[in-house]
Design brief:
With 321 residues, the protein is of the alpha+beta class. The chain is built from 9 helices and 10 strands.
């Protein structure tokens, strides 16, 4: 049965046809182009930062247990952030009164920066001298207090070496650096991997910051990626599907004589019907090559109506392909 349209439905169809923009009249959608910033080259991805964070969570847990036993008091270390920033931005975050030390990383021979809030110094020193670890005024440390803090930094470096053992880096405390000397450790425009740890004690809290140069960050990522790549294993079902798909792939191969050297005059004087002499004996086997790579010596033969090759090595003996 045919459907009869009402007048308002007919008017709506005509109105829609008039308002529809023709395909040719539609504005062309162009690709969005944005200028490339070379400063973003070598930027660490979020996945890589998460991998680095997992590595340093282990360092934070180990440092918590060891320093708590060393100080005989509650001591908590937590990873706050892991980010990639220019070194001059890291310098701006350093307080006017703080403890800054240079740490050498072997076998790279690179220097990194360790910064510790001096608000943590009075309770740590008080605990080591038999006190209750109470907070004190923020001030510069004396020579004796600086030697005590150097022992603390050596413990931090030892725990960093233990936690970063998978990437093969060793942390060695070098010496304390004055504020005016820190800027000479690295180029101010160099990208650094900055790790921030929060240290909590019963009566005080503060930050422990580490800044690593780009060469160290790249080494960490390369070794972490290769290590995780070796550990990664596909499920048996996935491997079976991948192998089945790979067996259906087609590739180019050739059966050819081994390469020989010819004088240029022999090629220059070559004419139709002429004979080009190769310095090969008649018993020299041909070569089976795939992708230009020699896989095996082979013998040319016929298999039904097709040309074939019998492999001398590399496949089951007597196989013809």
């Amino acid at each position: 049965m045919e459907k009869m349209l009402k007048q308002d439905e007919i008017d709506a169809l005509f109105e829609a046809a008039r308002t529809t923009v023709p395909e040719a009249a539609r504005p062309e959608v162009r690709a969005r182009v944005a200028p490339y910033s070379f400063s973003s080259a070598g930027q660490i991805s979020n996945e890589q930062l998460r991998a680095i964070s997992l590595l340093n969570d282990l360092f934070a847990r180990n440092l918590t247990h060891n320093l708590a036993a060393w100080l005989r008091s509650r001591f908590q270390v937590n990873l706050v952030s892991a980010e990639q920033i220019p070194f001059n931005e890291f310098l701006l975050r350093i307080p006017e009164i703080c403890y800054v030390a240079s740490v050498r990383l072997e076998p790279l021979g690179a220097l990194s920066v360790l910064q510790l809030d001096l608000a943590l110094a009075p309770p740590i020193i008080d605990l080591l001298l038999g006190g209750e670890g109470k907070e004190g005024p923020l001030r510069e440390v004396t020579d004796i207090e600086e030697a005590i803090l150097a022992s603390l930094v050596e413990i931090v470096c030892r725990e960093l070496t233990a936690a970063w053992q998978p990437v093969g880096l060793s942390f060695n405390f070098e010496r304390r650096q004055m504020q005016t000397q820190v800027a000479r450790i690295m180029s101010v425009n160099e990208k650094t991997l900055c790790l921030s740890f929060e240290i909590r004690m019963p009566h005080q809290s503060g930050l422990l910051n580490l800044a690593f140069p780009a060469v160290v960050a790249n080494t960490i990522l390369r070794r972490l990626t290769s290590d995780w790549g070796r550990r990664r294993r596909h499920a048996p079902e996935t491997r079976a599907r991948m192998e089945a798909s790979a067996r259906r792939m087609r590739f180019g191969g050739s059966l050819q004589l081994p390469s020989v050297r010819l004088p240029a005059s022999a090629v220059e004087n070559l004419e139709a019907g002429g004979i080009l002499r190769l310095d090969l004996s008649a018993s020299t086997p041909a070569e089976w090559r795939v992708g230009g790579q020699r896989l095996s010596a082979a013998e040319a033969l016929r298999l039904g109506s097709h040309r074939a090759a019998r492999m001398a090595a590399g496949t089951p003996e007597g196989s013809a392909i």
